User: Fold this.
Amino acid sequence: MDLGPRAALGTHDEDDVEEVADQSAVVAEPLLCHSLSVGSKRLGTGNVIAMSVRSFTASRVLPTIAHGSLDDYIEAGGGVGLRSARAVDPDVVIAELEASGLRGRGGAGFPTGTKWRTVAAFESSVLSTSMVVNAAEGEPGTFKDRAILEANPYAVIEGALIAATVVGARDITFATKRRFGDTITRLQAAVAEVERAGWAQDIEIRVVEGPDEYLYGEETALIEVLDGRAPLPRIAPPWRRGVVEVVADDDDVTSRSGLSADVEMATPTDDNTTPPVLINNVETLANVPAIVAKGAAWFREVGTEASPGTIVCTITGAVQHPGVVEAPMGTSLRTVLDEVGGGARTGRTIVGVLMGVSNAIVTADELDLPISYESMRSRGSGLGSASFIVIDDADDPVAVAAGASRFLAIESCGQCTRCKLDGLEVAGLLATITRGEGDDHDLQTIEKRLGTIADGARCSLASQHQMVVGSILEQFNDAVAARMASNDPVAPYLVAELVRIDDETTTLDESFLTKQPDWTHDEVDSGQMPAERLGEHRTD
Ligand SMILES: Cc1cc2nc3c(=O)[nH]c(=O)nc-3n(C[C@H](O)[C@H](O)[C@H](O)COP(=O)(O)O)c2cc1C
Ligand code: SF4
Assistant:
C-alpha cells in the first residue's frame, strides 16, 4: 500500500504540504550544488554563497541560501513533518521511513527505518530511550555535516524531534566536537529558537562538545563520551545499551556485573531495564522532515532503487575547486568531480579517489561509477560519508597510503592489540619506504600485518586500515615498484580531519602532525595504548 504523505500522515495543513511540494520542484536538477564558502561572516547574515556550479537552484537538505532564522525555515516549508509525526501513531512514521528507503549517511548506509523500529522494540520498561545526533564529523575529507548544520540546522533539529517522538525519547543530544566553534554557535542559536517556538515541548535538547579523536564519531565510543569517559568503542550495540548507564553501586563498575556500560554483548533474552539510544547522523536526520511531510514516493523521485534520495559529498584534494555538493544518488563520480570540483588541476591527471579512510580507493578507470551504496560496493569499495579526496599524478600513491595508515594507526585506541600494533607497524614501514629506505622485506611485512590487523577487532577501524592501504598497494603496484626502486624520499601526504573549507581553500588539522600513538602531543610517545591511559573500568 502506498502510504503517501496525505494518506499516511494526513493530519497536517494541506497548504503547508503544497508549499513544501513547490520547494521540492528542484529535484530533477542534475546536480544540486552549494558553496563551501560558509564562513562565519557570511553565515552571520544567513548566506551560503554558491559558486563554480552550473546547475543549482535549490536542494533537499543543503539550501543554496542558508536559512537565517526559524521563520525562514518555516517559510520554506519547515515544521510540517514534525506536526504530522506528532499527530499519528509512531508506527506510521516508521513505515513511511522504511518505504522511503532512507539509508544512514554516517557511513554504513544502514536503513534508517529499520534502525528506528529496532530501537522502538528495545524500549526499556523503566527508563526512557535517548536520541543522539552524531555531529562528530571526523572522517578525513568530510565537511558535509558542518555545512548542513550551518546552512540548515533547523531541518536536523526537526528530524531529531521527529525521531525522539517516534522512539519515545525525552532527550536529544547533539554530539559535536569542541573544535567546531562556528558550527556550535550556529547550532545553539537554532536550538534556542526552536525551543522558544515551542517545538521541543517536553524534550530536552543539549549540545555536547566532545573530543577531537576520530573514534569519537563511532557510535558506541560516542556514547562512552556522553557517559563521561574516553572515546573507546564498546562491544554492546546502542540499541541494547544506551547513554543512560544502569549502575546500582560502585561494585557494578569494577565487578563487570553487567549493570555498567562495560558489558558483554546482550542477548535477545536479556531484560530490558537498560534503555537503548537511537543514534543518527546529521544528514540522515536532515532528510527526515521532508520524507514525513511529503512521503516515501516523493523521496524516491531521485536516486536509485537501493540508494534513494540525494547525498551531500565533500570534494577535496587534487581538484580545481574543493567544495561540498548535494547530488542525486546515482550521479557519476566523474560528473561531481568535474562539475563541482572543476576537474583535475591544470596539467595534471586524476589517478584515483580516496573514499575518506573508510573504503578501498577508487581508481581513474572507475570514475564513471554512479555514486550509490550498491555501485561502490559492487566494485569492492564503499560510499562511506561521501568524502572524495582526489589524488592526481603528482601525488605518490605510497605517500598517500602512508598518510592514511598513519591516521588510522594513531587514531586506533588499542583495545584490540592487533589493530594498534599491526597498524603502527604498517604505518612505520610505509613511512620508511617513502623516505626511500624500504626494501622488499618491508613490503612483505606490510602485507602480512594487513592480514592480521583486523583479528578480533571490536570496531571497523581495523578493517578500514586493511582495505584502504591494501587497495592502494594493489591498485598502484607499478608506482609501488617504482618507489621501491628509488632511494629518493617523497614528501609526506597529510591525511587528517578537515578543519574548514572556505572560499575553496581547505584547511586540514595540522595538529595531527604531532599526535602520538598514545593520543598525546608529548614530545615522546609513552608507549601506552590510549585505552590503557584513558580507560577506566575497561580491561579487555
Ligand atoms: C571509526 C569510525 C568513525 C565514525 N565517525 C562517524 C562520524 O564522525 N559521524 C557519523 O555520523 N558517523 C560516524 N561513524 C558511523 C557511526 O558509528 C554510526 O554508524 C552512525 O552515526 C549511524 O548513523 P546513521 O545510521 O544515520 O548513518 C563512524 C564509524 C566508525 C567505525
Ligand atoms: S578495532 Fe581498533 S579502533 Fe576499534 S576498538 Fe579495536 S583497537 Fe580500538
Remarks:
- Residues 215, 233, 412-416, 419-420, 457-459, 461-462 surround iron/sulfur cluster (ligand 2) (CB under 6 Å).
